[in-house]
Amino acid sequence: MSHQVIIVDDDPVVVLMMKHLIIRHELSAAPLVFRNGLEAIQFLEKDYTREENYIILLDLNMPVMDGWKFLEALKAFASPENTMVFIVTSSSDKTDKESVGTNEFVLDFFIKPIVSDTVLSLKVLIDKHLVNK
Amino acid sequence: MKPDYNQYRILIVEDNPGDQLLVEEYLGEHLQKASIFQANTFKAFRQIYFNEHGNFNIILLDLSLPDISRENLIEEARKISQTNPVIILTGYGDLDFAVKALSLGVSDYLVKDTINALVLYKSILYALERHRVVQSLKESEKRYMELFQLSPAPLWVFDQTTRAFLDVNESAIQHYGYSQHEFLSFTLNQLWADDGLDAFITALNASPGPRTLPGTYKHRKSNGEEIFVELSINAIHFKGLQATIVQASDVTEKLRHMTAIEIQNDRLRDIAWTQSHIVRAPVARLIGLVDLIKTGGLSDEEKETYLGHVVSSAEEVDVIIKDIVDKSQSVIKD
């Protein structure tokens, strides 16, 4: 089964770095990029299928639709079984981590920057999730 | 009855020498150490009284003196002797006049034909005892009035039915800037700067006993300045009325300080938020960029792009830090 990597972040430099690392560590050859939650939701509403796995790297503070609202909107049509969300935020604010901690889609919470090690641990988490599915 | 060895100074005002003698004899039967002074006219009474600086335990006053009418006598005598007890001795048993005399502050009204040594002695003892009680009551009343008047906190008493002011102390007069006369012509309405008076009355009636009411009330001073006060209350009987005594504490300054502190807190929270959210973003970016460049595998072109981002991220951090410095200075200034 294939998987689709989706980056949702409004910082182009961060997106550039994430893309680079994702490609370098062969998590995906062509990750999709959206600048806010709304763009990502609009894509998924059309494209979402149970036959695909979705790996979403989600920033929290974004214009138009932020990460929390994106997670709310996701509930309407997606299943946690094939939709794995990783929060990637620059905020070291503990309350952010607490407020998404119990969300059914969220597998882990990363504080920026994303480096090679982050991507490697992502891969381990994804494999584990897909085996347990 | 045991002889009385207490020191007495007694002034007998009597124009009839026979009655003078008789009264002195009666006194001598029980009082072993009495200094007796005699006055046979109203004028002499006044003179002796002032010569002795009013230093008498009791004054025995005949109603029929040659130089004053009996109607004027009592009032004039009370003017001279304001505090010493006075016992009237008279030849006439006139009940109406006796009652009037007592109402003017006379201690007793005795008809000469009906008295003897014991009756006179008892009357003197009763008069002295009553005098002592009245004096101590007056002193305690004075003491409590002083506690009210001299209290450093503004105090006022108001009638629960009419909401009119019944009394105010000096501190209230100074603090609010209204004269006592103005206060006493006011009801509570004149003091309240907003419609919080009903809330005050409700809080007042909520439970009995002395207490500080929750919250603050807005009052207006005579110069138009509005102040916030905390009110402590207690029920009091005042001149036969159901009244409430209120102590007002001006907390305007305190509230102003609190507001200033809250504004500062908001600014500090803003700075904390900036540090945790805004500063973190370019710093995280810098760390990520440096990591990418360090781990290699970049084309020269990519390297060039990433270094450009390093510079712009560093500049972004610089701008944010300047902003934090500005905000911090505005907190320190206040």
Strand content of chain B: 15-25%
- What is the CATH homology-level superfamily of chain A? Response regulator
Radius of gyration of chain B: 41 Å
CATH topology of the largest domain in chain B: Rossmann fold
CATH architecture of the largest domain in chain B: 3-Layer(aba) Sandwich
Write down the domain tally of chain A: 1
Total of DSSP H or I helical runs spanning 4+ residues of chain B:
10
Whole-number tally of structural domains of chain B? 3
Low-confidence stretches of chain A: none
What string, H for helix and E for strand, traces the elements of chain A in order? EHEHEHEHEH
Mean pLDDT of chain B: 89
List the quaternary state of the chains. heterodimer
| Share of β-strand residues of chain A | 15-25%
Q: What is the radius of gyration of chain A? A: 13 Å
The strand count of chain A comes to: 5
Task: Please provide the count of β strands of chain B.
Answer: 11
| CATH top level class name of chain A | Alpha Beta
Structural class of chain B: alpha/beta
Question: What structural class is derived from the secondary structure elements of chain A?
Answer: alpha/beta
Report the end-to-end length of chain B measured between terminal Cα atoms.
84 Å
Average predicted confidence as pLDDT of chain A? 86
